[in-house]
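Sample entry (87 residues):
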Amino acid sequence: MRIDDDTELKVIHSSNLTPFEDIIVLDKTAGIWTFEPDEKTGERLIVEINDYDADKFKVDLLVKTVVNFRIVDPKAIKILKLNEGVQ
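Predicted structure, serialized as tokens:
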């Protein structure tokens, strides 16, 4: 996806099961990220891997974190509409 003459973004789908039509681009000054640790472990990032007894080559992988984002500069956020022909 080309935004302007100097800026190009490589867009990949992390899941074909979750369609999306917009991309949100944030400047570093747009807001404040706050990460909350897990209540049980105190860790910021939780990773769980569960294998299948029948086929050890198949696993379920769960990666999660709790994040809060507070906007401090709305002008530092742009929403690109993919469904309006932005390529």
